[in-house]
UniProtKB/TrEMBL annotation:
InterPro entries hit by this protein: AcTrfase_PglD-like, Hexapep, Hexapep_transf_CS, PglD_N, Trans_hexapeptide_repeat, Trimer_LpxA-like_sf
Family per record: Belongs to the transferase hexapeptide repeat family.
Residues of the site described as Increases basicity of active site His: 138
Entry protein name: Acetyltransferase
Database matches in Gene3D superfamilies: 3.40.50.20, Hexapeptide repeat proteins
Limits of the PglD N-terminal domain: 2-81
Pfam family, one: Hexapep
GO terms assigned for molecular function: acyltransferase activity
Amino acid sequence: MLIIGAKGFAKEILEIVHHLNQLDDLAFYDDVNFGMPEKLFGKFPILSSTDEATNYFKSIDNRFTIGIGNPFLRKKLYDKFTSLGGIYTSTISPTAIIGSYEVEIGIGSNILSAAVFSNSTILGKGCIVYYNSIITHDCVIGDFVEISPAVSILGRCQIGSFSKIGSNATILPDIKIGINVTIGAGSVVTKDIPDNCVVVGVPAKVIKKLNPLEF
């Protein structure tokens, strides 16, 4: 597998792959940070050009996942590396707790240790669910959503694509959160949130409007 990125969140994904015992032919990709070593931790090759990535997909392994957290960048990288022949692939920690009934996890999602999914939950493509986060029954999460550590998303919530939920935030039942929304750390969301905004506080309130995303 090729992990796109070789810093920060990419190292979180490495730990998942390590516990899955899938380290054979593992490589990373970084074409933006200069001075990177040839191998991460002296062990895993770091590719730095699209030609190298294309060759990797053709001759070694066509799977890739994205080790960068920003939802907007994740979508752009998904488009780029899919166009090079890569197959977008999820990484799910063996210590995550996944419900047995009606759980859907979209391609390319990264599920970290101790994340919990109840039954009847849907997670879109390319999402991140961090340590100790809980998604309870009948929740629907859009594409490329970032759920930070220890978030609680309670029953029947809907989260729009490209949104970011800060650490320890709580989304109360039946709440609808729009597209491209940032929820501040520790916030408690008690009412529906429109697209393209930042909300913080207890209860959470809109403090800033955001420009719609353009791809």
